[in-house]
């Protein structure tokens, strides 16, 4: 749909009109071997089945699948993919403020309305010849996806622009929760949210992927129900698949946790 030869309209403007991140148009396969991409795809599927796997279990289960790699390589691939092992970590000491900038605000919180709490996260997305990243923002009360985008990198500016778009369209939430990834502890991200004045910043505890469970569950759903079934060839195809599924997820897919309603109905009913 993007015409590179169009002299009247820039590629940037065309991407904006199509609500597509420009990096998706310019996407070229990462410099990772096809063998490693196959391993990463398998690890992603394994994560959807059991997110409690650590490097030892990944190495063992990959070996059972006929893939022999070291724990160091497993750890490196997990870092690229942003896989976070879910486990309980006893809170016996106060975390160093230099390493953990903001507390987790959702524990015991009664979430009773739309725009009270948003969760934001980034997930690895496998493709036929490479991979990209999907950022998504979910309204916890209604499970409504208020913003999303794809990119071939994980820059803080990309996350901030996605947040800006969601807030411009739906208004500011009271709390935004994320993990402690570098994008979410960056000066650009923190500075933007602090500049909103009325928004509180919340971050998961280390080793506590369940603290951001609703957005993690959405990532598993979109991968298993859409992306894995079609395995997109490039960024444009991935964008189309995500756009189609999120529209369906928001407006037509009922959720048992919200009285069987589609998220859009629950969100609009409360936000109006």
Class of secondary structure makeup = alpha/beta
Cα-to-Cα separation, first versus last residue? 35 Å
CATH class of the largest domain: Alpha Beta
Portion in helices: 40-55%
Q: State Rg.
A: 19 Å
Task: Enter the CATH topology name of the largest domain.
Answer: Nucleotidyltransferase, domain 5
Q: What would CATH call the homologous superfamily of the largest domain?
A: Ribonuclease H-like superfamily/Ribonuclease H
Number of domains: 2
Beta-strand percentage range: 5-15%
Number of helices: 10
Helix-strand string? HHHHHEEEHEHEHHH
Task: Note down, in words, how this protein is organized.
- The protein is α/β, with parallel strands linked by helices and 272 residues long.
- The protein has 2 domains: 11-81, no CATH class; 117-271, 2-Layer Sandwich (Nucleotidyltransferase, domain 5), CATH 3.30.420.10.
- It has 10 helices and 5 strands.
- The two termini are 35 Å apart.
Question: Can you give me a brief rundown of this structure?
Answer:
The protein is built from ten helices and five strands.
Topology record:
Layout: H1 11-17, H2 22-25, H3 34-49, H4 55-64, H5 71-81, E1 117-127, E2 130-139, E3 144-151, H6 156-170, E4 175-178, H7 187-195, E5 200-203, H8 213-230, H9 235-251, H10 263-271
Parallel strand pairs: 1-4, 4-5
Antiparallel strand pairs: 1-2, 2-3
